[in-house]
C-alpha cells in the first residue's frame, strides 16, 4: 500500500474516532430525550473522555495489525520500498526497560526542579 494513502486512511480513522466519541453520546441523549441534569453532566463531561480513549485504542489496533502480520516496509532515502521486515513488524511496539528508565528519571528530576524553583 502506498505510504501516502496509508497516511490519509489513518488520519481518517483518527478523525472518525474523535467525532464518534464526542457525537455519539449526544445522539443517544437527543434520541431518547434524556434531559435530566445528571444525564447531561454524564454525557457532556464524563462520557466523551473514556469513549475517545477506547476509540483511539481500537484505531491503533486496526491500523497497526497489518504491520504485525506482514511486517514493516523498509524504504530507501527516496521513499521506494526496498523490502519488508518481519522482525521489525514483531518488535515495532517493543520498548526495553533499560531504555525507558533513564527517560523516566530525567523527567522526574526536571519536574522536581520545576516545582521546587525559588525555594
UniProtKB/TrEMBL annotation:
InterPro entries: Mtc. The keyword Transmembrane helix applies. It comes from the Eukaryota. GO terms for cellular component: mitochondrial membrane. It is found in: Mitochondrion membrane. Its main location: mitochondrion. Keywords: Amino-acid transport, Membrane, Mitochondrion, Transmembrane, Transmembrane helix, Transport. Pfam families: SFXNs. GO terms for biological process: amino acid transport. It is a multi-pass membrane protein. Belongs to the sideroflexin family. This is Sideroflexin-4. It comes from Grus japonensis (Japanese crane).
Amino acid at each position: 500500500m502506498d505510504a501516502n494513502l496509508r497516511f490519509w486512511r489513518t488520519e481518517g480513522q483518527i478523525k472518525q474516532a474523535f467525532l464518534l466519541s464526542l457525537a455519539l453520546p449526544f445522539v443517544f441523549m437527543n434520541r431518547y430525550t434524556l434531559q435530566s441534569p445528571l444525564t447531561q453532566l454524564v454525557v457532556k463531561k464524563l462520557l466523551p473522555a473514556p469513549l475517545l480513549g477506547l476509540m483511539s485504542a481500537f484505531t491503533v489496533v486496526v491500523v497497526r495489525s497489518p504491520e504485525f502480520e506482514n511486517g514493516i516496509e523498509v524504504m530507501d532515502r527516496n521513499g521506494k520500498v526496498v523490502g519488508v521486515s518481519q522482525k521489525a513488524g514483531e518488535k515495532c511496539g517493543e520498548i526495553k526497560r533499560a531504555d525507558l528508565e533513564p527517560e523516566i528519571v530525567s523527567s522526574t528530576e526536571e519536574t522536581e526542579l520545576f516545582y521546587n524553583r525559588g525555594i
